[in-house]
Amino acid sequence: MNAPLLSVRDLSLWYGRAQALFGLVFDVMPGEVLVLAGRNGAGKTSTLRAIMGLVPRVSGEIVYAGRPIRGMAPHAIARLGVGYVPEDRRIFTELTVAENLEAGRKPAPVGSPIRPWTIERIHTLFPKLAELSDRPGGALSGGEQQMLTLARTLMGNPQLLLLDEPSEGLAPLVVERIAETVRELKREGLTILLSEQNARFTEAVADRVLWLERGVLQNLIDNDTTDKNEKNR
Amino acid sequence: MQDAGGLKGKLAGRNRRPAMRLDMLRSAMSAFLIQSLNGLASAASLFLVAAGLTLIFGVTRIVNFAHGSFYMLGVYIAWTVAEGVSGAGGFWAGLAAAALVAALVGVTVETLILRRIYQAPELLQLTATFALVLILKDVALAVWGPEDRLGPRAPGVLGGAVEFGGRAFPVWDLCLIAIGVAMLGLLTWLTRRTRFGLLVRAATEDREMAAALGVNERWLFTGVFALGSALAGLAGALQMPREPASLALDLALIADVFVVVVIGGLGSIPGAFVAAVLVSLVKAWCIALGQVSVGALSLDLTKLTLVAEFLVMAAVLLVRPNGLFGRPLRHVPVDREALYEPRPAPSARVLTGLAVALAAVTVLPVVLDDYSAVLATDMAVAALFATSLAFIIGPGGMGSFGHAAYFGLGAYGAALAAQAGWSFGAALAAGLALAALAAVLFGALSVRLSGTYMAMLTLAFAQIVWSVVFQWDAVTGGSNGLTGVWPPEALSDRNRFYLFALALCAAGVLLLAWLNLTPFGHALRAVRDARVKAEAIGLPATRFTWAAFTVGGTLAGLAGAVYAFSKGSISPDVLAIPRSVDALVMVLLGGLNTLFGPVFGAVLFTWLADGLARTTEYWRASLGIVILAVVLSAPRGIMGTWGAWRARRARRAAREGDMPGGGR
Amino acid sequence: MSAAPRLSATGLVKRFGGVAAVREVSFAVAAGETVALIGANGAGKTTTFNLVNGQLLPDTGTVALDGRDVTRLAPAARFHAGIGRTFQITANFLSMRVIDNVLLALASREGWAWRLTSVFTRPGAAEEKARALLARVALEHVAAEPASALAYGDLKRLELAVALAGAPRVLLMDEPTAGMSAEERTALMTLARETARREQLALLFTEHDMDVVFGFADRILVMHRGRLIAQGAPEAVAQDAIVREVYLGAGPVASTRGTA
Lengths: 233, 664, 260
Known about the structure:
The complex is a heterotrimer.
Chain A: E1 6-15, E2 18-28, E3 33-37, H1 44-51, E4 58-64, E5 67-68, H2 74-79, E6 82-85, H3 97-104, H4 119-125, H5 127-131, H6 142-154, E7 160-164, H7 172-187, E8 191-196, H8 199-205, E9 208-213, E10 216-222
Parallel strand pairs in A: 3-8, 3-9, 6-7, 7-8
Antiparallel strand pairs in A: 1-2, 1-4, 4-5, 9-10
Helix pairs in contact in A: 3-6
Chain B: H1 2-15, H2 25-60, H3 67-84, H4 87-112, H5 122-144, E1 161-164, E2 167-170, H6 171-193, H7 195-205, H8 207-212, H9 217-239, H10 249-264, H11 269-289, E3 291-294, E4 297-300, H12 305-319, H13 336-339, H14 348-367, H15 370-393, H16 404-419, H17 424-446, H18 451-471, H19 473-476, H20 494-517, H21 519-529, H22 531-536, H23 541-567, H24 577-590, H25 597-615, H26 619-633, H27 637-657
Antiparallel strand pairs in B: 1-2, 3-4
Helix pairs in contact in B: 2-6, 2-7, 2-9, 2-10, 2-11, 3-4, 3-5, 3-9, 3-10, 4-9, 5-24, 5-26, 6-7, 10-11, 10-12, 10-18, 11-12, 12-18, 14-20, 15-20, 15-23, 15-24, 15-25, 16-17, 16-18, 16-23, 17-23, 20-21, 20-23, 21-23, 24-25, 24-27, 25-26
Chain C: E1 7-16, E2 19-29, E3 34-38, H1 45-53, E4 60-65, E5 68-69, H2 75-81, E6 83-86, H3 98-110, H4 125-136, H5 152-165, E7 170-174, H6 182-198, E8 202-206, H7 210-216, E9 219-224, E10 227-232, H8 234-239, H9 241-248
Parallel strand pairs in C: 3-8, 3-9, 6-7, 7-8
Antiparallel strand pairs in C: 1-2, 1-4, 4-5, 9-10
Helix pairs in contact in C: 3-4, 3-5, 4-5
C-alpha cells in the first residue's frame, strides 16, 4: 500500500468561541479523488481552508507528502504543491484572464510527478480561456470563472488539488463539463480532495466519499466498493 | 498645515496684483501661468507621497497616518546630508539618503508593528499609525530641535530661475514637474508591466487568494512598504529647496495626502496623480485669482486655499463615493465572537453599581485639592466626548475621524454666545445647537459612504471647520482663539463647577447608554449588522445612521461647551486632528463594545496625558508608546479584554462543572 | 379581489456598466401561487429579486403590487407596501438574540422602531407574536440564544420567520434551502407553500436544487444571460428544448427526479 499524500489527524478548528471541526481523521491517497460531502455549515470549506493554512485557530496534525504543514503560511504550503480553488472562485476581477493565470504561475516542487502546466496546455484543457485572454476576470460568466480559477491554480503545478464546491451555482450543463475536467485531471495524475453537496456530481467523480456533519466526520463510504484497495488506475 | 499655508500666503503676496485692469491683463495672465506652474510643482511632491500611501493601502488596507512623518524625516535627512557634505554631491546624496532612510524606517515599522494589526478594525489601525506620528515627531524634536531648518538650493543651473512673461520661475520647480510625470510613468510601468506589479495588483484585490497561490505576503507587504516609504522620503527631500524642514510638516502634509488619495480612489496610482494635480491647481488658482469682486460682493479666494482641497474632495465623494478611479472595497470578514452584545434591561446589580460609582465621583474631588477638581472636570468632559464617539462607531457602525469638529463647534458656539452677553444656560444651548447643526449637515453627506471613505470625509469636514475658525480672525480670534469665557459667579468655585460639569456629562453618557437599550438603538444595530436586510424589513438605513451621527455630534458639542467654560479660553486646537484622535484613543483604550468602556478609557487617558505632560518633554512619544502597547496587547480595549477574559473563565468553570458527562 | 396579479414585473431592464444583467424581463405571480425562478449563477436571478424589492432601480420597466406601481419606492417603503424577502447569503442581525431579529421586523411593521422611551427587550404582546413566528419555523427553543450561534440551516429558517413577521403580500426567497438536508428542505418549502396558499401571498423563489424546484413550484421561470427564456408549468419547462440545451442538459449529472 502506498503512503497517503495527505494525512489529517485529529483536526479541530475554532472561529472565536465556536468550534467548527471536531477531531477529523482521514487520509488522501495519491491519485485518488476524495469527496468531502455535507451541507452548508458542516465544515467542508473549513477543512479545506485549514489544510491550506488559511484559518488561524487549528489544532491537530496535517501532514502533506511526509511533512507536517499545520502552522505554515499559506504561500509556503502552496509552494509544497498544494493547490486551492475556493468556493467563490475569487478571480482577480481587475486583472485580465492572462494576468490571472500569470499570478498563479509558479514552478512545480522538486520531484513532482505531474507534467508541468504551460499556458498552451491550459488552453488545450480550457479552449474558451484562450479566446478570453484579454478580458478582465470580472467580465466572465460563472462557468468561465470556474474554469479560470481552476486553471489559475493549475498554473502553480500542484500535486494535491483542493476544490471547494466546484459545481456551486452552475447550470447543470456546465456542472457536467466540470466533472469531465476533474476526471481528466485525475488521469493527469493529480490527487484531488473536493467538497461537494451535489450528490450527482459526487457520484460522477468520486473514488471515495467522506460525510461531514456539524464538524464531525460520520463514516467512510466508498463510491465503488470493488475499487476499494486498488487505486492504481 | 499652518506653516505650509503661511508660506504659500507669502508667495501669493509676491505674485498677486491688486486689480485686473485691461492694460495689465498680460501681466495677470503670466501671473496665472506662474501660479499654475507653481501648483504643478507642488503636485509632484504631493503625488509621490500619495502614490506611496495608496500603494500601501491597496495591499495592506492600512491607512498609514505616519506616512506624512516619513516625508518630514525625508526633509530633515536631506538637510542633514546637504549640510554635512558640501557642494552638489551633498544635495544629491541627501536625496538618496532620504529615500533610503525612509524606506528603512518604513520597513522597521511594518515588521515590528503593523504586521501584527493587519486583521484589526481600521480605526484601530489608524490610531496605531497616529501613535507612530507622535513618536516620530518627538524623535525629530530630539535629533533636530524645534527650529525650522532651511536647506540649500538645488545645485548649479537647477538652482536658478527662468523667465516667463517677465516673471522669474525657479528651474527646480520645473524639475519637480518633470520628476512627477516621470515617477507616474515609472510606477505605471512597475505595476502594469512587471511581475512584482502584477502580484501587487492581485494582492490589492484579494491578498488571501494571492497567498493561497503561493505569493509570499510578508515579502510583498514589506516590499510595498519599503517602496511607499521611500517615495515619501524622496518627496520630502525634493521639497528641501522649496520649504524648510519643520516639525509641523507631518500633519500638515498628511491631511493633504489623505484628500488626494481619497479623491483619486483608494489604491489607484493614476487616481492619485490626477487628484494631486487637481488639488494643487485649484489651490494655486485660488491664490492667482486673489480678490474677486462680483458686483458688490467681494470674496478673497486666497482664504479658500486651506479649505479648497476639502471642498473638492467633498464634491467628488458626493458624486463618486469611491473616488475618481476607486473601486468598492472588498468586505473584510468580522470576528463573530466579538459581535454578540445583548442589551437586556439593566439588572438591579448594574443599577446599584452605577449609583455607587456616581456617588463616589461626586464626593471624591470635593474632598481633594483644587487641582484634582480641574483634572476631574477634564475627565468628565472627556468621558462624554469619548462616549458620544463610541455611539457613532459602536451601535452606529460608522467611522468618524473628525469628531473634534463637533466638540470644537460646541466650545466655540458657547464661547461666542457668552462673549455676546448671552446667559450661561443660553450659551451652553448655543454650543449644543451649533454642533447639532454641523452634525446634521455633515452627517447627511458622510453617512452614505462606507468605511475608510466615511472616515476620511469626516476628517475633511473637521479640517474645513478648523480652517474657517483658524482664519476668521474677526469672529473666532483666529489662532489666538477666544478668552474670557467664564461661568456665572455661582459656579466659579472649581469644585462647584466640577459638580455641574459632572451632572451634565453624566446625563449625556447615561442618555447614550439608554439609547442602546431602546428600539431605536436596536434598529440602529440592525442596520450595522446587515444593512440590506434592515432595509428589507422596512428600516430606512440611512435615516438611522444619520440620526445616530447627529446624536453623537450633538453630545460631543455639549462636552465642548462645558469644556469652554471650564477653561475660560479656547483655541483652534479644540477642533484639530489630534483632538479627534484623542477621542478615538479613549474609546479604543476602554473598549468599544462595552457600555462604559469609553468612560473608563477617557478617565485613564486624561490622567495619563496629564501625568506625562507634567513629567517629560517627550510626552508625545510616551503617549504614542502607551497607545501602541494597548493596541498591540489589548485590541478590544481594557474593558473589552477584561470582559472576554471573565467570559472565558466562566466558560472554563462551566465546562469543568459538567466534566463527568464528558464533552465531544 | 382585484383583477391585477399580486405581483407583476413588466419590461425590466438593468445594466451594470455596459453589461445588461436583466433584459426585458416580464412576469406575473398570482396570489397564492408558488413560482420558481431558475437559471445559472449570473443569469440575473438575484438582480431580478433586487429590482422587485427595490434594492436596485431598473433602467426601464415597472414593478407593480396589486396593480399599484411601486417601481420608484425604496426597499424600506416596499416592505411597508407588502414585499418581503430572504437572502441568498443569510443576512441576520448577529449581534442580537434570535428573537430580537423577529422583534425588529415586528417593530418596523408596527411602527415602533424609532421609539426612544422604552426598553426593546421587554416582555409583551410583541414578544408573544415573535415567539409564535419562531414556533412556525421550529426555532422557538433557541429564541434567547445569540443569532450568531445558529447553524446555517437555522439561520435560513430564521430568515423566513423574519420575512413572515412583515405579513407580506409578496414573498421573495433567494435560494431558501441551499445547504439544507433533504428533510429540512421539504419541511421549509412545505411551510412556505402552505403559507402562500393560506395567506394568499405570491411566493417567488430561486433555487439550484431541481428536486425542490420541480417538487414545489406551481410554475417555473427560466433565466439565461439576463433574459427570461421560458416560463410555464414544470412539465412543460422540463421538456422545453431551449431550456434543456442551455441550462438543464441531459447528462446523468444534470438529470433530476422531476424530469425523469
